[in-house]
Amino acid sequence: MVASDQIGSATYTLDAASTILEVCQKGPAGLYHLSNAGTCSRYELAVEAAKLAGLDSSLVVGVPQEQMKRPAPRLKYSVMEMAALRSANLAVLRPWQAALQEYIAGLTKQSPRPAAL
């Protein structure tokens, strides 16, 4: 199960690391929010990941977050604007879909799925 009503900004750590280095080298000191471009629900992210991995995305179950009975409250909307990157004339990260595709492709190269029995 995954929250279907929790909207945020997905972040690929390799993209984040590259941009953090660029900020340290070129950007003015300050507070920077950082994520890949675009927004998605956790459900949308999980469905896209399953599809890219060649898995049955219909098995991903989206439910409202209050049904998940988590120990701590979660924000329903936590999208980042990345205004500081733009003000510093630094590039905003690529769309989350492209980053996810690269990540899943890397996983499938490292550990191919076993053949069906």
Question: Which features does this protein show?
Answer:
mainly alpha; two-stranded parallel ribbon; flat; 5 strands
As a percent range, the share of strand residues is 5-15%
Strand order of the largest sheet: 3-2-5
The rough form would be described as flat
Instruction: Provide the domain count.
Output: 1
What would you report as the Rg, rounded to the nearest angstrom?
17 Å
Mean pLDDT: 92
Helix and strand string, N-terminal first?
Answer: EEHEHEEHH
Largest sheet: 3 strands, mixed
The tally of beta strands, per DSSP, is 5
Poorly predicted runs of 5 or more residues:
none
Note the total helix count.
4
Helix/strand structural class: mainly alpha
What does this 3D model show about the protein?
The protein is flat and about 45 Å long. The chain has one domain. Helix 2 packs across helix 4. The chain has helices at 13-26, 42-52, 83-87, 96-110, and strands at 2-3, 7-8, 40-41, 62-63, 77-78. It is mainly α and 117 residues long. Strands 3-2-5 form a three-stranded mixed sheet. A two-stranded parallel sheet has the order 1-4. It has four helices and five strands; from the N terminus they run ββαβαββαα.
What's the topology here?
Blueprint: E1 2-3, E2 7-8, H1 13-26, E3 40-41, H2 42-52, E4 62-63, E5 77-78, H3 83-87, H4 96-110
Parallel strand pairs: 1-4, 2-5
Antiparallel strand pairs: 2-3
Helix pairs in contact: 2-4
Concise account of the structure shown:
With 117 residues, the protein is mainly alpha-helical. The chain is built from four helices and five strands; from the N terminus they run E-E-H-E-H-E-E-H-H. The longest helix has 15 residues, at 96-110.
